[in-house]
Amino acid sequence: MNIIAVGLSHKTAPVEIREKVAFPPDGIKEPLRELVSLEDIQEGVILSTCNRVEIYATTRDIAGGISRIRRFLADYHKLPLEAIEKHLYSHHSESAIRHLFRVASSLDSMVVGEPQILGQIKTAYGYAAEYRTSGIILNRFLHKAFSVAKRVRTETRIASSAVSVAFAAVELARKILGEISGKTVMLVGAGEMCELAAKHFINSGASRIIVTNRTFEKAEQLADEFGGDAVPFDEFQGALHLADIVLSSTGAPTAVIKSEDVENALRRRRFKPIFFIDIAVPRDIDQKVNDIDNAFLFTVDDLQQVIQANMEQRNLEAEKAEEIVEMEIGQFFKWLSSLEVKPTIVALRNRFDEIRRAEVEKTLSSWKDSPPDAEKRLESLTLAIMNKLLHNPIQTLKKGKEGGRTDLYLDALMRLFELQSVEADFDEESDAEI
Amino acid sequence: MAHIFHVLTIALYAAATAAYLACLFCSSDTIILWGRRILAGGCFAHILSTIHLVSLKRHLPLTEMQESLSFLALLLVVFFLFFERKYRVATLGSFITPLALLMLIVSGGLHGEARELPPILQSNWFWFHTMLAFMSYAAFAIACGVAVIYLLQRHFLKKKNLGPLFRRLPSLETLDEISYRALSAGFPLLTAAIISGAIWSEQAAGSYWTWDPKQTWSFVTWLVYAALLHGRLTAGWRGRRAAILSIIGFIAVLVTFLGVKHGISW
Predict the structure, then answer these.
(1) Options 3.30.365.10, 3.20.20.140, 3.40.50.720, 3.20.20.60; which CATH number does A165-293 get?
(2) Which CATH class, in words, describes the domain spanning A2-155?
């Protein structure tokens, strides 16, 4: 049995194409059903997010399976295959395993290390499990992908550093103020970026928001939104001492927060540190503020620099993650092959046994004055021969470590002896043996 | 036997030092966990070694420089383990454990023989005084270590030099908090140590305060920390100023402890 993956992602297709082939989450049942009713497709999982649409399936016939799924993707969305063909990629066997492991570990994401993708895969798998389109192989495959993603997350720091301005600001605030919970955030100006950062601070536990803006109504409006207080713009310096974190983004042409203001505020709050984030261009906060003890000023450029460094850090961590993925691929592939070996051995034995029985019976029926123990003797003789003959091939198959070679042997056996692999339930027991 | 415990302590401290130094370069929870375990093991061996020494000498090992150093190292490790447990500041260990290890190695062989203590030391005030003094030294050493990290972290933040080391060191707030805790433990201890020392001095030399170098320097130390705590409580001194004063205070401690001799000699 082979695992194949067909799909497209932000790396191969623009958003106009991606949205055309996306599957709505509430209507995933129908396509899943259609998918597994395709010829020689046994199991299927459909992953559809705004950044990628991918189908994972099992098949006996790799090339045929891939082309049928490609056509399915086009047909289902009533698109000509040519329209999406050049955006589609496909993987099979080891490469398909690598692909899902990398996707789940967020190594293939637009922002490497972003955590959402794992949840999205879990949801996609949830549907497949619910509608019973995933079976023994994909169940195991997806669960393995979850555990690989978890391992990557705990053993590397791929997702531990902020790569957005808002998150970087929160991260820095933690380094200066310790916990965010219970802290007061002041918004100077009601810019979009400020608002976003303020939301992040609230999510991290900030307890109070103070908003000031040149148009007082807007300040009030925003304050209402956050459940905070509005302060008139010409008085806000007097409230500066209340803030632990100041986010500034006015359109003012000159600095609105000067070093005297900060010095006064610090004295009033007994030098408890204040973290200033200046997102405005031109800048709102006098650069000299950074020289004041217990005041820490970061401009948008400083934050960008932090993000840049974090990105580099992530890329370094991604290399470690790739190593983990490679290790896990080997393990999973071994399991996949062993799953193939067992039914083949059973089929091989059955085939030999059939021939043996037939011949024993033929001999016995034509043997006139056979001794009374003839049948017993013949049985043990032929069994011994059969077992001897089969011993080496079976041992070789069982021991076969290299996935590729075992596949070759299995393929040859199937053809030479015209075997039909026995599809037994190997689920639990074979799990236990690995 | 003491020798075995002593060697064991040094070995475990060395291993813990290696682990804690590694924390500065790669943040692995496993390393931190083992660093803590090994250090706790070393601390236990150190306590056994100290108990053994006490049983040999039949007094606390505080009368000679060598044994005092070892005892101070023990207190330092105990204090550090306490703060590490409370604030999860493994990186502080990267500064404290090497110091403890160094002190222990310098203290050298610890096998002393029972000797008759000079009558001057056979006073409860003496033991009281030295115990208190050593505890305050250990607290101040922690405060000093924290102050150094604070200045480092502050420098990184001000210069926007936010590398991996910055990421691993604790937040300014945590450092400030530890520093305050350590100082507010150390200062009363030092005060009590000076008072009990004066009482002992009266017993031994007939005068509460003789302005011998040790007393003078301990008074200077006391003044530095008094200023620091006073500034903090009344004017909210914190940050760089507090950190620098804390380092100056510890330098005064070092001078008091290592640099000057008692006017009273034995």
Answers:
(1) 3.40.50.720
(2) alpha beta
